[in-house]
Specification:
mainly beta; 10-stranded antiparallel β-sheet; 10% helix
């Protein structure tokens, strides 16, 4: 349960870092299983995202109630694979932020936990504190997962002895497609289903 909520939050942070860090736009991408949407290109929420003209709205996916994604996570612990599924659904979205419901499932997709999360306010520009940031590199890549084929922005981070590589949809900014973490525990999470309008 905590791992699925943590993955959802880490995915959101990774998407924000990529989309607000350099001139990425929402053009292109391939829809997988789910409803194809508009792509929702626009300016970053709250301004100050950098990225030059026409930077993608990193929060576009979260601005439409009813959008959701489901991921399958596999974690290797002591040589054994632990499989879980997580669904993250936007329940409400307005000018203040969004409310989401997080649901965890076991390996057979039987619900084990569900919780509506409190309001998440839209991000505001962050001042540079001068501190040392984690090492981050970004590239682009097209990958295929159970939910389909996606043109992605790929972000690789390294901090505290762990390395994470995250793929986020270019067509649907904010939609996590895949994440691979290596370190103390190895974990892979892939998109298996989504709805984005």
């Amino acid at each position: 349960m905590r791992k699925s909520i943590l993955f959802s939050l880490l995915s959101l942070i990774a998407v924000l870092a990529v989309a607000c860090g350099g001139g990425n736009n929402a053009a292109g991408g391939n829809a997988g299983k789910g409803n194809a949407g508009s792509g929702n290109a626009g300016a970053c929420a709250g301004g100050g995202c950098g990225g030059g003209e026409a930077a993608a709205d990193a929060m576009a996916f979260y601005r439409k109630a009813g959008n959701y994604y489901m991921t399958k996570s596999t974690m290797k612990v002591a040589g054994n694979d632990m499989v879980t599924y997580s669904k993250f659904e936007i329940v409400k979205s307005d000018d203040k932020g969004y409310v989401a419901k997080s649901t965890s499932y076991d390996k057979d997709k039987k619900e084990t936990f569900s919780q509506e999360m409190p309001l998440v306010e839209w991000p505001k520009p962050v001042a540079d504190t001068g501190g040392e940031a984690p090492k981050v590199t970004t590239t682009e890549e097209t990958i295929k997962v159970e939910a389909g084929e996606f043109e992605c922005i790929v972000m690789e981070t390294e901090a505290a002895g762990s390395k994470t590589k995250s793929w986020s949809s270019k067509k649907y900014p904010g939609l996590p497609v895949k994440s691979v973490t290596t370190g103390a525990a190895d974990m892979t999470s892939e998109l298996v289903e989504y709805k984005a309008e």
